Each structure stands twice: as C-alpha cells, then as structure tokens.
Amino acid sequence: MLPLETNGSEDLMTDLFTYIDGHQDEFVQSLKEWIAIPSDSSDPLLRKELIKMVEITAERIQALGATVELIDMGQEQLNDGQSVPFPKAILAQLGNDPSKATICFYGHVDVQPAKMEDGWITDPYNMTERNENLYGRGATDNKGPVLAWINAVDTYKALNQEIPVNIKFIIEGVEETGSQGLEDLIKGNSSFFSDVDYIVISDNVRLSRKPALTYGTRGDAYFFVEVQSGTKDLHSGTFGGIIHESMRDLVYLLANLVDSSGHILIPGIYDDVSPLTEEERKLYDDIDFDLEEHQNNSGVNTFLYSTKEEILQHLWRYPCLSIHGIEGAFSGYGSKTVIPGKVIGKFSIRLVPDMKIPVVNKQVINHLKSVFAKLKSPNKLVVTLQIGALPWIANVNDLQYEAARNAIRKVTPEMIRDGSTIPLARIFQDLTKKSIMMLPIGGADDGEHSQNEKISRSNYIQGTKIFASFFLELAKLHKDLQMNNDPLTIKTSQQNGS
Length: 498
Ligand SMILES: C[C@H](N)C(=O)N[C@@H](Cc1c[nH]cn1)C(=O)O
Ligand SMILES: [Zn+2]
Ligand SMILES: [Zn+2]
What we know:
- This protein has 2 domains: 4-217 and 391-484, 3-Layer(aba) Sandwich (Aminopeptidase); 219-274 and 317-389, Alpha-Beta Plaits, CATH 3.30.70.360.
- The two termini are 35 Å apart.
- It is 38% helix and 21% strand.
- Helix 4 (139-158) packs across helix 14 (457-485) and helix 12 crosses helix 14.
- It has helices at residues 9-22, 24-35, 47-63, 139-158, 182-188, 190-194, 246-255, 278-285, 291-298, 308-316, 357-375, 399-408, 423-432, 457-485, 487-495, and strands at residues 67-71, 75-77, 83-85, 89-94, 102-108, 128-130, 133-135, 166-172, 198-201, 212-217, 219-228, 234-235, 320-327, 338-339, 342-351, 380-389, 392-393, 414-418, 435-438, 454-456.
- It is of the alpha+beta class.
- The longest helix has 29 residues, at 457-485.
- It binds the ligand C[C@H](N)C(=O)N[C@@H](Cc1c[nH]cn1)C(=O)O and zinc ion (2 copies).
C-alpha cells in the first residue's frame, strides 16, 4: 500500500476522482442492488428483508477490510402483543492508527414504506434511471449516502492508497421508526466511541442546488391516540345512529390539535421555544433559498408563509404538528359502509430548542383529555408517546466543518439547519460529547419519504468524491491541530527559536 507521502494530495485527489468517475456505473449498480431489498422497518412482515439488508451491509463493510460486530438489539413488541426481532446494529472499525483522526460515520439502511399504488411511476424497489436521476425507495434516504461513503473508502483501497483517517461505522436498521434501542447501544459501547474524534452523518438533503453543511435538526415527539368504541367493526346501517363512533371522536380530537394557520392548539406548547435573537435573525438573510423552487419541489401551490425568513424559521426553529394517518380506519378503494371499532390517530410534533419531551407529553395528554371530555363519550381513549427524539445544534467552528468546506472545493457550502429529525444526532452529542456534522449529498427535490424518491446520479457520484476528499482534508487539519497542541512540538520549535 502506498503511504500518503508518496503522492501529493492534489495528485491523489485527481486519481481518486478519476477512479470514481470511471467506476460510477458499478456504484450505481450497487445502489440498485440495495434498493431491491424492501427494508421497510415499519412493516413487521418485511422484517426478514430488513435483517437481510443489515447483513449485506455488514458484509460490504467487512469487504473493505473493517472488523465488523453485529449487535443484537432484542425483540420489538408489536401492538397486537406479538414480537419480532429488531435488526442487528453494525459497529465496524477500519484502521486504528493513533496518529490519525478517527471519523465515525452513522447511517441507516431501513426505509419508509413504499407501494406502487401510492403513486410511484416505477416500482419503488426496482431502481430506475430517468433523466440522470436514480429513482427508488431509499435512494437518498439513506442507502445512497451510506453507499457513497463506502464507495469513497473503496476507492482508496482500489488505488492501493493509504486511507488518511481511521474510520468507524455505526449503521442501524430502525432509524425510520425512531432508532429504538440505539441510545442503550451507545451507552453500552462507550469504548467504541472513546477514540472517535468526529461523527459524520449524511442523512438529510440540501436546501437548494448549492452544497450544504447541516448544523441543526428538529426533534420529534410522535403520538398514537387510540379511541375504542367496541370489540369489532360494525355495519353502519345496522348500528349507525345509535352508537358513539370511535372515528367521530378521533376526528374531533385530531381537528383540535392545530389550526389552519399552522398554530398548534395545545396550551403551553410554545412556552419553552427559545426566543429568536437578533444575531440568529440575521443568519437567515444570507441564505440562498429559492422559495418558488422549493414550492415546486413540494407539489403544493401555497405555503403558510410568504417570505424566505418565515419559511426557514418555521422549518428550523419553530415546532410544527403534522397528522400522519389513522390505523384501523377504512382507507381502501370503494365505499365500504363500516363503523370501525378501534382507530388509532397518528401525529407528531417536531421539537425545537429548548422543548422538553416529558413536558410536551404531559401537555398533549392533558389537552386531548380535556377536548375528549367535551364529547361526553363513553369510548376509551389512550394516548401514548411512541417516539421521543430531541433537537440537535452543533458548533460550526469545529474542525470538521472546515475540512468539509475544503472538501466541497468549488463553492462555499450553505450553512443550514434541517426541519427533520435524526434521533441519534442529539444522543451522540449528549453521550459522546464529540463533534457532530451532517454532510448531505442529496438534493432538495429528492422526495424523501414521498412517492418517486430519488437521488441524482451526479449527487451520488459527486457525493462520493466529496467524502473521499473530506478524508484527506480532515487528515490535514487534524494533523496541524495535533502539531500545534503537541507539547513536544511546541517545545522543539521553541528550542529552535521559532
Ligand atoms: C432525516 C432522516 N432522513 C429522517 O427521515 N428521519 C426521520 C426520523 C423520524 C422521526 N420520527 C420518526 N422517524 C424523520 O425525520 O421523519
Ligand atoms: Zn434517513
Ligand atoms: Zn427518513
């Protein structure tokens, strides 16, 4: 293997980029193979596929030469009393040279549900290339970015070049359902993180066409609100008009969560939201954000707000409440005349600094109970918090942000926050105290969680290049930092009179 010194870093970068360009079809083929596995973590019937997905990821990382550990995550208890095994989590390590920086890359290989009948143009699990875009579930969230990182490492290996940093991986299979069990995994493996200097996540998208670095995400408090009127579904002709319908109660409860201007109706919910300072307000002015383009990406014709500043603030620094669905309600084609016996409404509140999960939980329960009381319904109401993930904000002066800016090279990346949630971001920050950075490679129009999710071929391949060059840039800055902090170096240079 060639040590770094044998090749100037610019020459090396050129070699790396040439290799990546030349092998892009292989990288695209790997993504196609990953997308073919329906690793939907929310569907227990697909659990075998999810477990297979984690296994092939582990094999792929092992093939890089890494030592891989698969950690058992126990059993997932389902609502119907049954249980299924959680997919294992991957902890892997490639290189342990104490003179090098150690980066831990976190990602997930589970996906959101996807069905043709949701409105996909092509099979979500048969990746299809159209207009240089790679369509398929998980293309951008998060299989493409995880593979791009692996491709970057692979490129060094293929060129027989020394990787300038030590790399660790933590890859999981339940991010889309809230990363259950991952907090305990991190607590139980503190030695894995003890020599990690930097944690990198690439699991969100850019704000515009411009590359970006993300330094904050919202959290999420996800609730189930269950209303039960009886033990079974009923004929609406035979029983309609004489019973208290669970659906009527639930619809009333859901309608009392948020008003038409987006204001959350739960008393006290805004109390802990950190106030907007003048300094923060100014940050929004400089952000390059095309409102019209964003609106086109969304497929809706009117947003709740009309200025760039309001839109960004309501995505990044204010909470929002979304109603996601109703389990148990009739939702198929046709006109079934049924009264459901039990329905479960699902909604979530994106959390921002300094909201607290137990406080939000109490406010939601109290509010729903008081709205329900007005109905004087004999039905049974149960409210449960399913996912509680805190928001995350990083220090953008950390060294790895500078390295990423250097790696992106041609343009200065936009410094952004993100309205979505990566539950582990805040958990990593609180438990490991390490520097965390999000380096998105997906585009603003990728359609995460939506029909026809994609990543552009260009973002996938350019992203692979950014990661490969990030290893070099970080290695350089880390070495400089070590030299400056190393008492021996300081002493030697003082002795030399410099
Ligand atoms: C940003 C990331 N790719 C993602 O999609 N995260 C999910 C995590 C989550 C939150 N509640 C449930 N899952 C998201 O933000 O929806
Ligand atoms: Zn994701
Ligand atoms: Zn997602």
